[in-house]
Amino acid sequence: MTGLRRKAAIIGALMSDPASALNLELKAVGVEEAWFRIEHGHPSIPQQLRQRLLSVDVAAFMARGAAAGARVVMPGDSDWPAQLDALQLHSPWALWVQGRGLDALAEQRSVAIVGARACTRYGERAASELAAGLAARGLPVISGGAMGIDAAAHRGALAAEGITVAVLACGIDVAYPRENSTLFERIAERGLLVTEAAPGAHPTRPAFLVRNRLIAALAYGTVVVEARVRSGSISTYCHARNLNRVLMAVPGPITSPESGGTHALLQDDAQLVTSADDVAALVAPLGSVSVDPLARSKTEWDQLSRDERAVHEALPARAPVSVEAMLASVSPELGMARVFGALALLAERGLVQEQPSGEWKRVRALRGAEA
Amino acid sequence: MTGLRRKAAIIGALMSDPASALNLELKAVGVEEAWFRIEHGHPSIPQQLRQRLLSVDVAAFMARGAAAGARVVMPGDSDWPAQLDALQLHSPWALWVQGRGLDALAEQRSVAIVGARACTRYGERAASELAAGLAARGLPVISGGAMGIDAAAHRGALAAEGITVAVLACGIDVAYPRENSTLFERIAERGLLVTEAAPGAHPTRPAFLVRNRLIAALAYGTVVVEARVRSGSISTYCHARNLNRVLMAVPGPITSPESGGTHALLQDDAQLVTSADDVAALVAPLGSVSVDPLARSKTEWDQLSRDERAVHEALPARAPVSVEAMLASVSPELGMARVFGALALLAERGLVQEQPSGEWKRVRALRGAEA
């Protein structure tokens, strides 16, 4: 391990607030210069910070992480997740990582699934099924390792034998919350634990908020599964919004306070997702997937009734025709009422449109049509 | 009753398809001329239609409606619901109405609540609570008198002693579905039954689709409560869209097929509503109501934590300041981490914004702030 890497890891451990003026100033000058300024007591460096740096037992600090099976990655490394650079001067100095999947994070459009710790069974099921569906498609599932929605998301991804990434607010060797210890062990084996906190560091409330920016930045899109109106997971969502990531939320019963926050997000700028299909389509590269929520599994032709098919075929590809002209060209048993009914349904599908003249025309071709 | 009114009611009864070329042609020339053309066999009139008109026993036809306690209203009447004129040539020739509330339909921004016949208890509860909330605000609740969501909406409005309007696809004296007979009686007493079908007419599938345009046109906005992906209530929604009315849908569990259609609408162009408050705000005249989904009952100030209030006050109204400057002006016990945490929460509320310089500024004033 180079001196640079150690320095980055230690400076990161000393900085609790990525948005502080001091951190931004040091970020702007780079690791070596920042180390030099702290070590030598540059005018902008608080005396306390210098003393903390000088008191670090570097070998012990690094050994503690290594003993936990973790290593340090830093900006410029070939496996550094480049999406974190969107955080600019708020990006981490370095990350402690344990497990596998860092390459998947770089290559795939991973998805963050976050939500309330005190969630319902419905939320737990939704999170775990979404995560399993995404993992089955090869998309890494990122969350925060908390109880409730986070844990359900990690478990769903693991159950589908996919990659899941837990971004912690504590040291890599600190299992918090303790109830998820076994889950963290499984993630370290089959997925990835990530944190910018120093080995041994215990989580604080500000650390959770600061950590949330990493979840949002590592993911191509964030899904909020269940959240009350005032919920910590909204903070991850807001970071994702600031980073122009895909914003998604899962609806729930309007009678459930646990869905109050997600409904507020959906009334704001979140996109409603009901399945891993929906999420995958939203995070997919443009043009690679096309999902019509009304026509998922079947072709559009399959979904038409016999009347609708007959009426659609009776319409020429371009020119509008009158209902009476259509009546003349369809089977005689289709009366005006059935033709009108079929037209109304075809119009609902966006296939045909009535003209101001009262005539009708095709608006677009059938998707997956056989004829 | 004038001859004109009788003629309009009878022509309306003869026309099963408001979108047919024949109906549009007759609509364009008006009641008297249309009657003349049918009676005298104008070249565009099918022979069959003329024979049907000549066979009508006008006195008996009108007497049947009157016996049911209904009367005919037609365009130009002082209590004709003017919003139906948005249907242009597809608007009804006349309506049979029974009960009270026609004036409320003209004066208030009524709301249609529609959805599946085969709904869940959740949908039933949502429909009935929304309807009760709207009725309590004086907004008439319109629906189609069907089982399931429709009936729940009517019942909710009646329970709140509000006006509810059932728009039928059958004659005003035909209780369809029979299970709702008692409900129809209560609506006729305390609300309004409306139909363009002739007295005695039984409903047909096309008649339901044709009727849906009246529900959509009478209402200022349409709420779909529960609907499978292929549901008849989607047709009402599409009519509402064509008429540029407010489009709303209620979310539900993503595990419920009964919410599959509403979720598809929400992924399309419906606005998500979770309460009568939401609906009332969306159908209210512009500027008359302002509802922030994150701050319904309390002022924004009430919702802030002590840290948030302190940090918000430390920010000058306009100029951005650094976190360190803020630290200097807040109580000393607030360290950088707590200031940062409060800033993150204030940013989530859209109250403050970080500048590219790393400084922070207020973006807008607190709603309902005391300070």
Provide an overview of this structure.
The structure is a homodimer of 371-residue chains. By secondary structure, chain A is an alpha/beta fold. The first copy, chain A, folds into 3 domains: 3-56, no CATH class; 83-283, Rossmann fold, CATH 3.40.50.450; 300-362, Arc Repressor Mutant, subunit A (Orthogonal Bundle), CATH 1.10.10. Chain A is built from 17 helices and 11 strands. In chain A, the strands form 2 sheets. Chain A has a 9-stranded mixed sheet, with helices on both faces. In chain A, strands 10-11 form a two-stranded antiparallel ribbon. In chain A, a hairpin with a 5-residue loop joins strand 10 and strand 11 (360-362). The model of chain A is unreliable at 290-297 (pLDDT under 50).
Q: What attributes does this structure have?
A:
two-stranded antiparallel ribbon, 371 residues, Rossmann fold, nine-stranded mixed sheet, alpha/beta, elongated, Arc Repressor Mutant, subunit A, 3 domains, homodimer
